[in-house]
């Protein structure tokens, strides 16, 4: 199988951290595109400053990175061939749900149907191993 109950719980947490932070990162970065500097270096520094001093961006960014660290630590004992698609599929669902709660247009019924099919495929893979 993919993993024990503890690893499965960690992978679910990873998916939640990855998926739910995406929409918050998008809203936290709002206004970034309005920064205009002539030199590339000044532009880059202005963008880093804008994001780095913005808690609406940094809090979800740090939570997202915690998810990445947990994922990395879990890979030592989990089956990669199942852990990766499982995490990605679940993260996508968390992204859709969080985005919807924040009022984003998530692509309607077709996007939701795609998610359900992806999740079913992952579950079949897990059951088969």
UniProtKB/TrEMBL annotation:
It is a multi-pass membrane protein. Its main location: membrane. Residues 1-23 form the signal peptide. This is Transmembrane protein 234. Belongs to the TMEM234 family. The lineage of its organism: Eukaryota, Metazoa, Chordata, Craniata, Vertebrata. The chain crosses the membrane at residues 55-73, 80-99, 111-128. It holds the Pfam family TMEM234. Keywords: Membrane, Signal, Transmembrane, Transmembrane helix. GO terms for cellular component: membrane. It is found in: Membrane.
């Amino acid at each position: 199988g993919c993993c024990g109950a503890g690893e499965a719980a960690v992978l679910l947490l990873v998916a939640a951290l990855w998926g739910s932070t995406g929409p918050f990162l998008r809203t936290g970065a709002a206004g970034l595109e309005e920064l205009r500097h002539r030199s590339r270096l000044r532009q880059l520094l202005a963008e880093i400053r804008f994001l780095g001093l913005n808690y609406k961006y940094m809090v979800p960014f740090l939570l997202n990175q915690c998810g990445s660290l947990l994922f990395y630590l879990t890979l030592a004992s989990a089956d990669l061939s199942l852990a990766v698609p499982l995490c990605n599929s679940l993260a996508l669902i968390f992204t859709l749900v969080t985005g919807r709660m924040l009022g984003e247009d998530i692509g309607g019924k077709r996007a939701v149907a795609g998610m359900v099919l992806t999740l079913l495929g992952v579950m079949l893979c897990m059951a088969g191993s």
